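Consider the tokenized backbone below.
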């Protein structure tokens, strides 16, 4: 019965190491996705430390690939030293992922304050004639999120750009996508997106941060199972060094 349990633990451990390789790719993808999205929305918040969870999760993903390699070799060869190293590294990565979750929640809460603090300044700096990066970011956000203005399209009336153009219209990025003859005129508000961008930008950025949090939590749970199986193998290895190897011809360390 004990031998069955130890064999099952080793089999699960080998399978988990394969999952770690897949997890490495997924975590790196999530981190890269956060970076790419940040590039689209970075004008709406000034705290670059918001990217810390993404940086950490990419580092964890890279480390998980190495962990999977160590774990597979250590499990198949029944290496006590290798399994102990595997458990220690897993524990360190687990602690790191807990830190990612905590930081994710902290920066998720800060996103709303950051956007509220900077969005009006970004809109006031809009230049539709010779658009700079911030102006292009506003047009991109309004098209992607299907919104107009900060709280609604009337916010454009308070901007420098609106007062300078004096044509009583908002940027064409406020026009509904289905309309081809929209000029952005405030005399036809039904042609414009009615929802403001502030709440939608906050929601989008908080969703992205939640991807990081859930990814870290999911793989932290897998790592707990990996540590448990490795500890079972190590305990059995210490009590009974003559137990059967997972593969024939394996050597002890």
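A designed sequence for it:
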């Amino acid at each position: 019965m004990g031998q069955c349990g130890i064999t099952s633990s080793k089999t699960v451990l080998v399978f988990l190491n394969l999952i770690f390789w897949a997890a490495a790719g997924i975590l790196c993808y999530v981190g890269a996705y956060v970076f790419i999205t940040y590039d689209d929305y970075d004008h709406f918040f000034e705290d670059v430390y918001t990217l810390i969870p993404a940086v950490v999760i990419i580092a964890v993903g890279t480390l998980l690939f190495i962990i999977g390699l160590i774990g597979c070799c250590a499990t198949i060869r029944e290496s006590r030293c290798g399994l102990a190293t595997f458990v220690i590294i897993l524990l360190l990565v687990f602690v790191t992922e807990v830190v990612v979750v905590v930081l994710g929640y902290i920066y998720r809460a800060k996103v709303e304050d950051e956007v509220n603090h900077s969005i009006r300044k970004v809109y006031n700096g809009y230049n539709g004639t010779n658009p700079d990066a911030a102006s292009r970011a506003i047009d991109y956000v309004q098209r992607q999120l299907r919104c107009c203005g900060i709280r609604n399209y009337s916010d454009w009336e308070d901007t420098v750009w609106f007062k300078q153009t004096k044509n009583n219209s908002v940027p064409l990025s406020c026009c509904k996508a289905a309309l081809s003859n929209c000029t952005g005129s405030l005399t036809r508000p039904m042609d414009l997106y009615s929802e403001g961008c502030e709440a939608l930008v906050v929601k989008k950025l908080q969703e992205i941060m939640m991807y990081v949090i859930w990814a870290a939590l999911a793989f932290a749970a897998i790592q707990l199972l990996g540590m448990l199986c490795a500890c079972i193998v190590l305990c059995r290895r210490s009590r009974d060094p003559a137990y059967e190897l997972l593969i024939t011809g394996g050597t002890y360390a």
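Confidence is low (pLDDT under 50) at residues 1-6, 241-253.
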